[in-house]
Task: structure prediction
Amino acid sequence: MARHLDLATRDALVLRMRFYRDLGLTEFYRRAVDPAILEQFESASPRLEEQAAAPELQEVSLDNHAHEARQAASGNAATQSILSAEEAMSARKAQFSSPLIAPEVAPAGRAAALEIIREEIGECTRCALHKGRNKIVFGDGSPTARLMFVGEGPGADEDAQGIPFVGRAGQLLNNMIAAMGLRRDEVYIANVVKCRPPGNRTPEPEEGATCSPFLFRQIDVVRPQVLVALGATAATYLLGSRQPLAGLRGRVHAFRGTQLIVTYHPAYLLRDPRQKKEAWADLQIAMKELGLKPPGKG
Ligand code: SF4
Result:
């Protein structure tokens, strides 16, 4: 492997090495990496366990469950052989109460880091939703976006195209983004589950719990300043709270180092356009956090 890697490739490599190391797969990356890079990495890069003890990561609770959660989230075959199905489920549940924030990736390496997550998802069969999907809908937009939207799951149009929010609800989301003075390619968009639930039903808890760790990792890579949860399902999985939407809207929540705002799902706004005014009020909170003014208001 070449010693002189460009910055983006090196950042992506370091992210992957940290990931494997924290799963205990040190021999795996030691065999694959140039010794000079390995030496720099091992001497300069604290383990996640050490980072969790650092003051800036106090919110991270690193216990055995959380470690198992990362193992379960990896989808790595070697890891899955370590955990029984029951342990894996309990570990996935634990991820909600102990979300680990991954080390920050430099902006130049974020596209490559997202690509690594996509590669790890592969042709995923980790939950039952794979049976009915056409395309995995990973995410769309800028890997360095300051604003990220999270929806529930793909619908028929998204399943056909492999891109989130491209149907009627997607058109409304595009209009909402434009009203905020942004272009769609300036934001990042993803869903709680990456495969279409049959008949557009709400994802089952096991499906959401199995898929959402990939979303958490996307959030950790993009590191948006503001995250907007679209609808109750996204809010529930992101905040780990089953409160009704009304109790979560209208304020800023701290989540994985971002400011999280909850609003209605565009599909709901299509069914009940009277709530658009409320949704706009939520988006204005997001705009305030981002220092944005509506177009035409200088
Ligand atoms: S929804 Fe997520 S976990 Fe389930 S099969 Fe699709 S990609 Fe895999």
About this structure: Residues 145 and 187 are 5 Å apart (CA to CA). The two ends are 51 Å apart (CA to CA).
